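Fold it.
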Amino acid sequence: MRGSIKQRSKGTWTITIVTGKDAAGKRIRHYETVTGSKDRADTRLAELIVELSKGTYVKTPRALTVGEYLSQWMASQSTRCRPKTMEWYGNIVKNRLSPELGHIPLSQLRPSHVAQYFAKLRDKGATLTLAAGDYRTLRKALRDAVKLGIVGINACAGVSPPKPQDQDMQVLNPADLGRFLAAVEQAPFPYGALYRTMLYTGLRRNETLALTWGNLDLELCTLRVVNAQCHVNRVFTLLPPKTRAGRRAVDLPPSLAVYLREYRAKVEGQRAMIGKPLTDSDFVFAQVDGSPLLPGTASQTFRKIIRKTGLNIRLHDLRHTYASVMIAAGVNVRTLSQSLGHAQVSTTLNVYSHMFPGAGKTAAADFDRVVSPWVENADNCRQEEDSGEFCRQNADNPF
């Protein structure tokens, strides 16, 4: 018998299992306390025996709870993740995971606990996107616990992840484009220039906010993306793009280059009035005194403007609109992928494949164009065979 159960008091059981032998040949025992019914204790004993037989058993410190482990895990991630990611993890752990699961001993966390957690989220009306974020965070934390040998099994492995619904991609059509540009021109300075630049270049919000005048060459109509703005807990930092592809050069439409020259002249006039000449290290889109614009304020201002126009787009949809215009213009997919800063061309195809007009019909027509001569050739061969002459030169033809 590799394990036993003993009742300590009403509703409290002590499980004892033999996990092996030490150097002197003495049995090594593991003790674990389970509260609840006898059936629950029997189930836990069976789980431990299965873990021992599979070699996945790990002795977890009895006092370590899920909440305590998540706190330790968060501290370990601080040197590995970007500040924005850490803020995201922190909100999930502090506001939802720890309050609901934190009291459970880590060694006793089971898929049933995880499933109940997400059922409770659903009952509270949480979105699938929020639930999916919680699942990814908990799964990653428990996966790290398995790697470190703190637990033997990832409790998320037995639970199907929530699948958020794909959010419809909105783009500005030609009829709406003029209305949009007229609206953003009425935005507080310099937000109109910010939104126009995002539309004409496809840059992400935080990439555009991190642009300096030294990153722009308005004579050659190019800009360089070398940083992205990060604003967490009122602390402003500049970070390089996440991937090498994110550091890129983007060609500017000539009309945008002309627009930005006029915009720069206005900025230089404002800076001259406060006695702070404009330099290459200054942000292109900033407060009058040169201090950076906050990303949240940029998005909030955009929503206020769009609400007045009756259009249904988000700030990030300007990037999708840029991509749709480039696709309509017949731009090569690889070129578009480089402009957008995607690490893989497959990412561009996955996101925007539905925008390629008539791609299926074009492919079908190309198939017909290539195959038709083969079919005609095969028909000729059959006629020659019928007349007793074998078409040797086309013997390899699959038709």
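The mean pLDDT is 84.
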